[in-house]
C-alpha cells in the first residue's frame, strides 16, 4: 500500500507531503484544482517518461518520492530478478533535473525506467477512462478468468514448457536449413575427403620423402663422392688413416719422455678411432647404395601428389592436410547423420507438444469451470449499478495453436439490453458502461487475488443517485482487502471513504499553487455540503452531508 507521497517542484506544486492509510481514501476538489497533477506525479513514480515541462521552477530539480508497504505483495522474486534491494518499506524516488535528464531510484539504488515500470504496475493501478479500454483486450479478459480459476501455477508451467518447445522448434529449423545447405556441399566434400584418405597422409612424411628422393635421384654422384672419400681415408701412401696412424705412433714414442706428449697421443688416438668409424660407415654406405628406378618413381609420384594437395588446399604442411581431412570427415559424417538427428529432434518436439497439450487442457478445463461463476457475479453486480439487463456470453475453445497463455480462443461478448445481440465489449458497451463493468470486474478480482493499490479516477462520471451509492459501496467493500483511492465529484461516494483528501488551488504572490490536504470530520461535512449544494451551503445541505457521513 502507498503510505506516503512527497512532491517537490512539480507542475503547480511547490512542496507537498502527505501520509495515507489503508482502506478507502477519497480525493475531491474542483475541476482544475490539480487532481490530474497528483495523478501525473504518481505516474512518474510508476515509470512514466518525464520532460522539463514537469518542473515548476526550471532552475531546480523536481523530486517525487513515494513510500510503499509491500510486505503482503510477494515481490521478493521480482526484486531479485531486477536486482533491487528488497525492503518491506520500499521507497521509490524520481528526480527530473533542470538539464532535462531523469533519474529513478528504488531504495536509493538507481534503476532504469523499464524496471521501474515492472515494479510500478505491481504497486498501483491507476484506473481511468483510458485504462478502461484494457477491459476489451483478450489479455486482460484471460487474466480475469485465470485469477478465478487459480491458474497461476499452471500458466507458469505452461510458459516454461512453451519456451522449451520453441527452442526445440528453432533447433529443428536450423537442422533443416543446415541439411539443405549441406546436401549441396556433400558430394564435393566427399570428393575432397576421398582424395585425402587415398593419399594415406602421415605427419612428417614430406621431409622424409624429399630426403629419399634426393638420394635416389643422385645415386651415381653419391657413389663417386663416397669412393673419393674412401680413397682419401685408405690410400696406403697419403690416406688420412695411414697418416693419422703414423702420427699416433710418433706421439706414442714421445709420451715416454713427458706427460704433455701423452696428452697429444691420446687426442690423436681419439681422432683415429673416430676416423676409423667414419671409414666403416663410408664402406657400409658404398655397399648399400644401389640405383632403384622403381622406388624413385614411387617417391616422385607421392611427392607430386602431396604438393598438389597442399597447393589445392592452400597449406604448407602435411599436418595441415590431415587437419583438413579431419574437418571434412566431420562435415561428411554430420551430413550423413542429419536424417537421424532430424528424426530425433522431431520426436523430442512431439513429446514436448504432448506435455504442452496436457497443461493447456488443464488450463482450459479450469477456465471453463469458473466462467459460469464469473458471469453470474458480474451480472449480479451490474444489476445494482443500473444495468439490470446486462448479460455476458463467455466461452473458451481449444485450438491447435500454442499461444502465450495456453491454446484457448476466447469469446467474451456482452449485451446491455434485454433481447439484444451479443457483441464485443468495445462495440456493445458505452464508455460509462465500460467503467461500471471494470469496477465490477475489479471487485470480483479482489476476492481472489491480492490486487495492488487501486486509484479510480472519476469512475463514477455520468452516474448519480442510487447507482453512485452502489458504486461507493463496491469500492468500500474492495477496501477491506486492499487500499482503494477514488477521485470523485459525487458526495454519495465521497461520504463512504475512511479518509478524505481535498485538492485545491490558491494564489500566493500572484502565483497559482496546488496543494492536497487531509480533511477532519468537520471539514468533510463542509466539503460534502458544498459538493451537494455549491459554495453557498444551505442548512439542508449541511444536514444531508452529516446524514451521508453517518
From TrEMBL:
Pfam families: SMC_N. May be involved in recombinational repair of damaged DNA. It comes from Aestuariibaculum lutulentum. Belongs to the RecN family. Keywords: ATP-binding, Coiled coil, DNA damage, DNA repair, Nucleotide-binding. Residues 2-509 form the RecF/RecN/SMC N-terminal domain. InterPro entries: DNA_recomb/repair_RecN (IPR004604), P-loop_NTPase (IPR027417), RecF/RecN/SMC_N (IPR003395). Residues 148-175 form a coiled coil. This is DNA repair protein RecN. Transmembrane segments: none annotated.
Amino acid at each position: 500500500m502507498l503510505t506516503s507521497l512527497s512532491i517537490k517542484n512539480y507542475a503547480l506544486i511547490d512542496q507537498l507531503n502527505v501520509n495515507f492509510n489503508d482502506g478507502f481514501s477519497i480525493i475531491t476538489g474542483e475541476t482544475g484544482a490539480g487532481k490530474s497533477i497528483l495523478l501525473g506525479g504518481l505516474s512518474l513514480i510508476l515509470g512514466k517518461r518525464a520532460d522539463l515541462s514537469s518542473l515548476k521552477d526550471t532552475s531546480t530539480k523536481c523530486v517525487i518520492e513515494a513510500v510503499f508497504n509491500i510486505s503482503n505483495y510477494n515481490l521478493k522474486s521480482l526484486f531479485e530478478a531486477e536486482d533491487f534491494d528488497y525492503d518491506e518499506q520500499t521507497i521509490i524516488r524520481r528526480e527530473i533535473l533542470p538539464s532535462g535528464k531523469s533519474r529513478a531510484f528504488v531504495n536509493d539504488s538507481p534503476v532504469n525506467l523499464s524496471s521501474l515500470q515492472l515494479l510500478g504496475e505491481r504497486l498501483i493501478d491507476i484506473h481511468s477512462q483510458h485504462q478502461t479500454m484494457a477491459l476489451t483486450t483478450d489479455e486482460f479478459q484471460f487474466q480475469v478468468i485465470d485469477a478465478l480459476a487459480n491458474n497461476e501455477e499452471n500458466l507458469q508451467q505452461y510458459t516454461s514448457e512453451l519456451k522449451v518447445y520453441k527452442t526445440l522448434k528453432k533447433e529443428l529449423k536450423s537442422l533443416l536449413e543446415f541439411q539443405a545447405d549441406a546436401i549441396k556441399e556433400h558430394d564435393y566434400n566427399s570428393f575432397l575427403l576421398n582424395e585425402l584418405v587415398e593419399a594415406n597422409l602421415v605427419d612428417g612424411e614430406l621431409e622424409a620423402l624429399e630426403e629419399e628422393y634426393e638420394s635416389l635421384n643422385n645415386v651415381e654422384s653419391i657413389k663417386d663422392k663416397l669412393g673419393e672419400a674412401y680413397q682419401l681415408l685408405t690410400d696406403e701412401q697419403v690416406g688420412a688413416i695411414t697418416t693419422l696412424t703414423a702420427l699416433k705412433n710418433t706421439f706414442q714414442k714421445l709420451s715416454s719422455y713427458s706427460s704433455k706428449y701423452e696428452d697429444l697421443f691420446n687426442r690423436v688416438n681419439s681422432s683415429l678411432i673416430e676416423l676409423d668409424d667414419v671409414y666403416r660407415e663410408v664402406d657400409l654406405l658404398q655397399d648399400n647404395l644401389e640405383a632403384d628406378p622403381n622406388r624413385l618413381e614411387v617417391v616422385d609420384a607421392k611427392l607430386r601428389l602431396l604438393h598438389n594437395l597442399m597447393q589445392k588446399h592452400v597449406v604448407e604442411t602435411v599436418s595441415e592436410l590431415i587437419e583438413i581431412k579431419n574437418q571434412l570427415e566431420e562435415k561428411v559424417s554430420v551430413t550423413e547423420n542429419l536424417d537421424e538427428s532430424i528424426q530425433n529432434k522431431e520426436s523430442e518436439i512431439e513429446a514436448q507438444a504432448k506435455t504442452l497439450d496436457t497443461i493447456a487442457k488443464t488450463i482450459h478445463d479450469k477456465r471453463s469451470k469458473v466462467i459460469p461463476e464469473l458471469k453470474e457475479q458480474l451480472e449480479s453486480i451490474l444489476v445494482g449499478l443500473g444495468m439490470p439487463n446486462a448479460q455476458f456470453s463467455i466461452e473458451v475453445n481449444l485450438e491447435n495453436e500454442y499461444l502465450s497463455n495456453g491454446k484457448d480462443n476466447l469469446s467474451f461478448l456482452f449485451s446491455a439490453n434485454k433481447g439484444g445481440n451479443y457483441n464485443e465489449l468495445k462495440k456493445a458497451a458505452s464508455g460509462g458502461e465500460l467503467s461500471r463493468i471494470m469496477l465490477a470486474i475489479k471487485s470480483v478480482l479482489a476476492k481472489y487475488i491480492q490486487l495492488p493499490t487501486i486509484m479510480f479516477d472519476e469512475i463514477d462520471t455520468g452516474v448519480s443517485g442510487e447507482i453512485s451509492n452502489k458504486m461507493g459501496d463496491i469500492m468500500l467493500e474492495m477496501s477491506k482487502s486492499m487500499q482503494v483511492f477514488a477521485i470523485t465529484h459525487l458526495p454519495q461516494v465521497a461520504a463512504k471513504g475512511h479518509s478524505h483528501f481535498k485538492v485545491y488551488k490558491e494564489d500566493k504572490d500572484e502565483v497559482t499553487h496546488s496543494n492536497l490536504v487531509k480533511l477532519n470530520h468537520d471539514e468533510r461535512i463542509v466539503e460534502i455540503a458544498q459538493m451537494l449544494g455549491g459554495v453557498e451551503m444551505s442548512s439542508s445541505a449541511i444536514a444531508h452531508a452529516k446524514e451521508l457521513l453517518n
